[in-house]
Design goal:
about 50% helix; nine-stranded mixed sheet; alpha/beta; about 20% strand; 25 strands
Length: about 725
């Protein structure tokens, strides 16, 4: 992160040297800011919370007794061995090794589900083991099983904030699931339950800032509060008091985590920019704010969120006014400003975003312009609806209804942008690649005002970018001739395609999000889905269903007979119903000829238990298919766990196949004897990059390889195609 900050520093120094007139001084000020970021960042790495008694005990993996103040809401996450809960807290007292310390050390607690009810702001005591951690915390703390002991309840302001947050969720309760999640996220950053596929779409289209607390949230809320105050006759210094109350209320609602404080600071600076002489005052205030924030928490200097916030704010203050004025020569003023502000912020952040994601978005500016009219009503009316719902839920739902509709538009834009053929271009994360990108951004900052002042070149450039985004790039040699099966690279999920004829295929699962599944089928030229099989109803297998249905005729749908989890099954039923389709239970052991493919469900059967002892009900009820195409036998196993694998082994004793789709993304829980007995020549592992589950397990890969199976993974090779060649079976990859 310090290296990225140094690159940005070079860019700002160049702006300072090349700038003229009034812009030169602010550019120099911005460069000095980045010097402070880099210098303090280096110091922060040696003087941060990672030093002290808690960090030293963590290095020893010591068992301790601790008292901590909870500083975040509990967040359920899927762990390797079941659901876990993450909670941030500040340790105030710790005892271990016969000693006792009074400290102030931030930690992350990784606990069992008993911690779901712990309240933000409460003080709890616990015993557990400390472990080393990375980032801005001193340690990971894994408490003993069971709920913590509450020492002190939260203060009244925390309880009031929790009541309002609950009111916001209650106000959008009748709305569709995505809207129920996104309204609280836009208002106060409460993104619990967010669909991972939708989050990916927001990242691809440059709308991620809407999913977290940002300066935009505070600007809108406090701006609305000031307008309301003016209507009520508040004048003079009373407006400053009102703004201060609004800022404090926002921080309490969104929680006092470093990211929230940072967002509140940057939003306050944005509000200042709307006052007289706002640009110069904004630059000076930004400098002061950066220094104060770094003194308050030096570790901010090496966090991506802080860098992005500072850069976006600086870009809006330094670049947007000139770009707006240039575009005003031929565009209406409001349109010019609507384009200049997100474009300036995006350009300023591009090097850091590329360093983090390895991509440069081509649709970010357009997506932000399209959603801009919906953000304000979604944020303001969502908050008003939540306040009303505290005292009268029906009124709150009526007030929040337009907010939910506005969020629906934002979701549509994100999915549309992510579904375009080329929404982003891959960019390297090496020092040279980032230095080159930084130089290009500096050049763009210098040339953009001259370009925007001329309508014809501007429109031609916009047309060229539009064509690059909407016209699919031809992928040479893809799909490879003679392909039989493709495992689509859809991240941490399954989406398999079996060729059944020209332009038609059997599709097994749809991955976690629509855009990735849609793109994979487009690359293969699949226009008709002869058979769609949904092995089970977990999000990473059915979340992309609408992408499979988009623009394609689906002849029939099979699914698991177990509707678990119920919300996943209900969502699938709604999506299929909207397309005039209905899922039927996969017909056990019946052989169906689907074009060139022979398809036989071999699990689960009517005589077999759907919930196997010591297994996962939904996973163990996965539909397992034995498919034969052009004489090649494929076993597609869904997410069946070892108990179901053993049951399947007994049901199909002696089965031999050519290609195995490894169950459950290559998790550690496997029946190795069954899998190796299949004698597969090729094994495919659909798995996401850098997933938090440890998939695929090294011991599984070793066992299959030692048995003579060639193992390939989508996280390292992209789309994988099994092809029939003269010498037997081959595998081609898209990367």
């Amino acid at each position: 992160m310090v290296a990225v900050s140094a690159l940005v520093l070079v860019a700002l120094l160049l702006l300072a040297l090349l700038g003229r007139g009034p812009a030169r001084s602010p550019a120099r000020a911005a460069a000095v800011l980045m010097v402070a970021v880099v210098l303090v960042g280096g110091w922060a790495r040696t003087t941060s919370a990672t030093h002290g008694p808690v960090a030293e005990l963590a290095a020893q993996r010591a068992w301790v007794e601790a008292e901590l103040v909870v500083t975040s809401d509990p967040r359920p996450v899927a762990g390797r061995f079941g659901e876990q809960v993450l909670v941030r807290g500040t340790v105030r007292e710790v005892a271990g090794g016969g000693r006792h310390w009074q400290v102030r050390s931030p930690v992350v607690v990784v606990a069992d589900p008993d911690w779901r009810g712990v309240a933000l702001g409460s003080t709890v005591s616990l015993s557990g083991r400390l472990q080393p951690a990375e980032g801005d915390v001193a340690a990971l703390l894994r408490p003993r099983a069971g709920p913590p002991s509450t020492v002190a309840e939260p203060d009244v302001w925390w309880r009031a904030a929790s009541v309002v947050r609950a009111g916001i969720r209650r106000a959008v309760e009748p709305r569709p699931e995505d809207q129920r999640v996104l309204v609280p996220s836009l208002v106060v950053g409460d993104d619990a339950g967010l669909d991972p596929g939708l989050a990916d779409d927001f990242r691809t289209t440059g709308l991620t800032h809407l999913l977290a607390v940002s300066g935009t949230n505070l600007t809108l809320m406090v701006g609305f509060l000031l307008v309301a105050g003016r209507w009520l006759g508040v004048r003079g210094r009373g407006r400053y008091v009102l703004a201060a109350v609004g800022i404090v209320g926002f921080v309490l609602l969104a929680r006092t985590e470093p990211s929230v404080v940072r967002a509140a600071t940057m939003g306050s600076i944005a509000l200042l920019a709307f006052t007289s002489n706002g640009r110069d005052r904004g630059i000076r205030t930004l400098g002061a704010a950066v220094v104060v924030l770094l003194m308050w928490d030096p570790t901010l200097a090496v966090t991506a969120g802080f860098a992005l916030s500072v850069l976006a704010t600086a870009g809006i203050l330094l670049l947007a006014p000139g770009w707006r004025d240039a575009a005003r020569r031929w565009l209406p003023p409001r349109v010019a400003e609507a384009v200049a502000v997100p474009a300036a912020a995006q350009l300023a952040c591009t090097p850091v975003v590329a360093a983090l994601s390895g991509e440069v978005s081509l649709v970010a500016v357009l997506a932000n312009v399209l959603v801009a009219p919906a953000v304000a009503p979604a944020t303001v009316l969502g908050l008003l609806g939540g306040l009303c719902a505290v005292v009268w839920p029906a009124l709150g739902q009526w007030v929040a209804w337009p907010a939910a509709l506005s969020v629906g538009w934002v979701i549509s834009v994100a999915r549309w942008g992510a579904g375009l053929p080329v929404p982003a271009v891959t960019w390297g994360t090496s020092l040279f690649a980032l230095a080159l990108l930084t130089g290009l951004c500096v050049l763009g900052a210098i040339l953009t005002p001259r370009l925007l002042a001329r309508p014809v070149p501007t429109l031609l450039l916009c047309l060229a970018v539009l064509l690059a985004v909407v016209v699919p790039r031809p992928i040479r040699g893809w799909p490879p001739p003679g392909w039989l099966l493709v495992a689509c690279d859809v991240g941490q999920g399954d989406a398999l395609v079996v060729r059944s004829g020209p332009g038609s295929a059997v599709v097994v699962d749809a991955g976690p999000e629509p855009a990735a599944a849609d793109r994979c089928l487009d690359r293969l030229g699949v226009r008709e889905v002869s058979l769609l099989v949904l092995t089970h109803y977990h999000q990473d297998h059915v979340g992309g269903l609408s992408g499979v249905l988009d623009g394609r005729r689906v002849a029939q749908v099979w699914a698991s007979p177990l509707a678990d989890p119920p919300e996943g099954a209900a969502e699938v039923a709604r999506t299929l119903g909207a397309a005039g389709l209905q899922a039927l239970p996969a017909p056990y052991l019946e052989i169906h000829q689907v074009g060139a493919a022979s398809v036989q469900p071999v699990w689960p059967g009517p005589g077999l238990p759907l919930v196997v002892a010591d297994g996962d009900g939904a996973n163990d009820a996965s539909v397992v298919l034995l498919v034969e195409v052009d004489g090649v036998r494929l076993l597609l196993t869904g997410d069946i766990e070892p108990p179901a694998q053993a049951g399947l082994g007994r049901a199909v004793a002696g089965l031999r196949v050519d290609v195995l789709k490894v169950p459950h993304h290559g998790s550690r829980a496997q029946d190795m004897e069954f899998l190796t007995s299949l004698g597969a020549r090729v094994a495919l592992v659909p798995v996401g990059k850098d997933n938090g589950y440890g998939h695929p397990a090294p011991e599984l890969l070793a066992a299959l390889t030692e048995g003579g199976t060639r193992v390939l993974r989508t996280d390292t090779s992209g789309d994988l195609a099994v092809v029939q060649v003269d010498s037997g079976l081959g595998v081609a990859s898209l990367e």
